[in-house]
Amino acid sequence: MKKNIQIRMENLWFYYHDRVILENIHAEIEKNAVTAISGPSGQGKSSFLMILNRLWENIHGAKVKGREEIDFGKGFEDIHRKTYPVHQLRQRVGMVFQTPNPLPMNIYKNIAFPLTLMGEKNKAKISSRVEAALKKAYLWDEVKDRLSENAETLSGGQQQRLCIARAMVPEPAVLLLDEPTSSLDEASVRVIEDLLLELKKNCTIILVSHYMDQIRRIADHRLVLSDRRLRPDTVKDRDI
């Protein structure tokens, strides 16, 4: 059966000053699936994610060449063309980092923040979207009576789910996650894995992970990044 491709890359290179970080990347990422990327440390996995939503543009000396296209429902678009609005891209391609990074404000405002940046002023709509995002992140029942509390009072696992909820509130088509469970206890890890399996019904997920057990549990597709190249992982029980 033919795959429903959402992201495709052709001859994609990433440089930091004169140093090649990623070389001649060719890849297709399936829609509504979890694609896991593993490989040795320091090989550019985080850089690969940053290419997908142009966070690399914030790094002095970074440069990308090649082609990357994403289908947001109206056909493939070249997201690196100069006329493509980066703020629009980052609404469509969310990002969750390795270490939870709640904003220094209360729980409600953390989730509402992306909507505020988008110019949404309808308070009822914002409240509805905040509640929906927290429910998607399996967090609503734990925080619904604490929305005015500082987000930094949450546990590590709760903070990471809050960050996922914040990334999901603009309803992105793609969600990028950079080792999102590396600092969490086993119970929190399993909650987030269950969450990602639920989220992929409406979102394409790209997950960087060093944990083979996690990749076996939730990944639909597996890629390995090493020696600056991205390749399919054909080893069933690779030790990472």
Explain this structure to me?
With 240 residues, the protein is α/β, with parallel strands linked by helices. The chain has one domain: P-loop containing nucleotide triphosphate hydrolases (Rossmann fold, 3-Layer(aba) Sandwich), CATH 3.40.50.300. Helices cover 32% and strands 28% of the residues. The protein has helices at residues 45-52, 86-92, 107-117, 123-136, 140-143, 156-168, 186-199, 212-218, and strands at residues 5-16, 19-30, 34-38, 62-71, 76-78, 93-96, 174-178, 204-208, 221-226, 229-232. Helix 3 (107-117) packs across helix 4 (123-136) and helix 3 runs parallel beside helix 6 (156-168).
Per-chain topology:
Elements: E1 5-16, E2 19-30, E3 34-38, H1 45-52, E4 62-71, E5 76-78, H2 86-92, E6 93-96, H3 107-117, H4 123-136, H5 140-143, H6 156-168, E7 174-178, H7 186-199, E8 204-208, H8 212-218, E9 221-226, E10 229-232
The CATH architecture category equals: 3-Layer(aba) Sandwich
Instruction: Tell me the helix content.
Output: 25-40%
Residue ranges: pLDDT <50 for 5 or more in a row? none
- Broad CATH class: Alpha Beta
Sheet with the most strands, sense and barrel status: 6 strands, mixed
Q: What fraction of residues sit in β-strands?
A: 25-35%
Strand order in the largest sheet:
6-7-8-3-9-10
Average pLDDT taken over every residue: 94
Radius of gyration: 18 Å
Q: Any idea of the CATH topology? A: Rossmann fold
Distance between the termini: 30 Å
Give the overall shape.
globular
Key terms for this structure?
Rossmann fold, single chain, 240 residues, alpha/beta
